[in-house]
Amino acid sequence: MAPQKSVKAKRPNHRFVIDVSAPANDKILDVPAFEKFLHDRIKVQGRTNNLGDAVVISRAGNTIVVEAKIDFSKRYLKYLTKKFLKKNMLRDWLRVVAKGKDGYELKYFNVSNEAGEDAEDAEDSD
After folding, report:
1. Cα atoms found within 13 Å of the Cα of residue 47, Cβ hemisphere only
2. Helix, strand or coil, per DSSP, at residue 72
């Protein structure tokens, strides 16, 4: 018989990055407050404030890095980010867009002045 290989359970390592540089540079979003919000709201095993070594949240400039040694969903970070934006009444101006496989980016909605230009054109033609 051939020797059997030992099978070790592979522990998942997830690293997600949330880039908040656009609103942070305009001083609309408070990055430390967002980091604290994530610390307070991320649930591990159904409980908040239970991060331990399983989830590590760090800030590097205008980016938030979430590293998890447990199963962790990227979609959960999007949910929490949107919740933070709604709480701070920024949801009408900012959106959460995927930036690759392992991160999100906060972008402004594209507000075009086409509707305003059409109204001005109608007034000019009179």
Report:
1. 6
2. coil
CA distance 18 to 16: 7
What's the whole-model pTM score? 0.78
Q: What is the enclosing helix (H) or strand (E) of 65?
A: strand 63-68
Neighbours of 37 (CB within 10 A): 19
Other beta carbons less than 10 A from residue 36's beta carbon: 13
Tens-binned pLDDT, residue by residue, of the chain (126 aa): 667 766 666 677 899 999 999 999 999 999 999 999 999 999 998 898 888 889 999 999 999 999 999 999 999 999 999 999 999 999 999 999 999 999 999 999 887 766 555 555 555 555
Cite the DSSP H helix spans in 1-113. 21-25, 31-41, 74-87
20 C-beta neighbours (distance < 10 Å), count: 25
Q: What is the radius of gyration, based on Cα positions, of the chain?
A: 21
Amino acid at 124: D
Which DSSP symbol is given to 89? Answer: T
Give strand pairing partners of 55.
Answer: 68
